[in-house]
Amino acid sequence: PAYFISPTTTGSTQVNAVGLSEETGGFWVVARNLEDAKKQAESMFQKTHGKSVEYTIRRDEDVLDTWFSSALLPISCFGWPSPTFTPSVAPTFSLSPSIGPLPPLPSANISNNTCLFYPLSVMETGSDILFFWVARMAMLCTYFTGVPPFEKVLLHSIVKDSQGRKMSKSIGNVIDPTHVIKGVELQHMLQMIRDSVLPQHEKTRAMKDMQIEFPNGIPECGTDALRLGLAGYAQLGKRIHLDVRRVVTARHFCNKLWNLSRFVLNHVERLGAEEILTADEIVAQAHSLPFPELWALNECHVTVETVSNALNQFDIATAAEATTQFVHLQLCDVYLEITKFTVNHTSARQDVIVGVLVHLLELSLRLAHPIIPFVTEEIYQNIPHRLRSSNSPLLMTCPYPSADTTRLFSNPQISKDMELAQSIVTAIRSIKSTNKLKLKEFVEVEISVNGQPNVVETVRSLSELISVQAVCNIKTTYHNTSPATLAASLPSPLSSSVTENVTVHVTLPASSRIVNTEDIISEINRIKSRFEKTGTNMEALKAKMSTKNYRERVPSEIQQLDAGKLLRLENEMRSYETTLNELRYQLAASTQQNQS
């Protein structure tokens, strides 16, 4: 321990001789015991002053230094060295005689005194204190108990500013988390820099950077949004270049989740919880549900499986991305849009649709809860008890979703069928957008399929779903009919390729057809610009996917997302190419007509 030596007689000559100052009034020595500390004090006084000096001695109350005390935290917080402290596993290590004898180890038999939380399964920390703290914990706790304090060490990311600089008070780039949570005006942040102890030239530079980075201050984002924003960066051992705009995007997701819950729960209230299918009833009807519900439940299973695998590998970023994408894309952008008309305007199968919506909402809340606990808990409390899949009164005590419990809904073929349907919907909407039609404007559509009889039947069976989403009427689905032949037989359609063997043909309203030569040229230039931009994005993605070690280092879930994105870009390229050919044909016809 450390001892503080304080002379009882003062005087500038004596004080200077022993190296004291008027402010401290003494000095520290480190000794094994009180007698050793006195010997050191006497020796110092004799050496510096030539005689004994009266003094007082005080032992420091903090026996261990900071890191030494911290190294014992995993066991001291559970009562060690009390005899009642017992690890939950048997000792596995012992010291060699050359190092020294191992202290008597407590019995590892399971009893009421067993410490269930020692050892830990995972120690989560930062790489900057790996040797200061983590290594000391591993050595000391293993020495005293024979059991390592944890099995694995998870190194989280280090937060830096958007320019990649370490946040430091000395350069004035620290972002206060409460400012992101509650919001702050730019003038308040500038005033904090002015009131700091930085040199004036550092203040000037820091304020200039602050004005560039946050010209309008920081908007109120909330705790959940900050957690979700950071989780999106959480790649193991990496550095986070924190951009507050990503936290704002995370806030938008939280708002979307809240709005989704309002839509679903309003229909629950309208229909009455007793009239809606419960989670158990949905499972019982797993193989007889309509196509949209089976697809949504299959996508939920895929998401649960992805999140579970990611968390098992400590890949929090992938888990967060998979959860948000499911809510954004599959649940809101597709399933909700498909069923919204039925729920709002008809009485058909409303009990099924709303029941599935509640079930998917609850599973989404359980998936997202570890990352955004506050908004998810608030929404969960508003779900009627009858419609919950767990009897737990709190979301935080519900069992986490497992792929084993959702595997009943796994159906890869349904996913492929829906992917085809969505590509057709996207193509029809793209044609409308290209020709400046409103997405809700009704159009007539023909579809040609070459060499795939099963695809013809799939498209025909999903024609109603496609019609609802794309606001169109699918008149006929042709098999083994050349797209060019079919296009020539229709009244000036504009066709768009969906896949290599599936092409949609949209007959445009007469009022929307481009007949003026200048307008056709303008439209060709606009589509050509989109074609080139899409081509650039596609080549960049191909370059990323062909980099060395892409298959080995990039998580399989991200590879699947990249593959899906590449497929969509290739479909867009074919669509734009077909549209350009149609427009060039129109341009040639228009030019010939004007010349004649």
Uncertain residue ranges: 11-23, 95-112
Strand content: 5-15%
Q: Sketch the major β-sheet.
A: 4 strands, mixed
Number of distinct helices = 23
Give the helix/strand layout.
Layout: E1 2-7, H1 12-17, E2 27-30, H2 34-49, E3 55-59, H3 66-71, H4 73-76, E4 86-87, E5 114-115, E6 120-126, H5 130-145, E7 150-156, E8 158-160, H6 177-182, H7 186-194, H8 200-213, H9 223-231, E9 239-241, H10 244-271, H11 279-284, H12 291-312, H13 316-345, H14 350-368, H15 373-381, H16 403-406, H17 412-434, E10 443-449, H18 453-461, H19 463-470, E11 472-479, H20 483-489, E12 493-497, E13 502-507, H21 517-545, H22 550-553, H23 556-595
Parallel strand pairs: 4-5, 6-7, 8-9, 10-11
Antiparallel strand pairs: 1-2, 1-3, 10-13, 12-13
Describe the structure.
The protein has 596 residues and is of the alpha/beta class. It is built from 23 helices and 13 strands. The strands form five sheets. The protein has a four-stranded mixed beta sheet, sandwiched between helices. It has a three-stranded antiparallel beta sheet with strand order 2-1-3, with helices on one face. A two-stranded parallel ribbon has the order 4-5. The longest helix is centred in the last third of the chain and has 40 residues, at 556-595. The N and C termini lie far apart (106 Å). Mean pLDDT is 82; it is low at 11-23 and 95-112.
Key terms:
three-stranded antiparallel beta sheet, 23 helices, four-stranded mixed beta sheet, alpha/beta, 13 strands, 596 residues
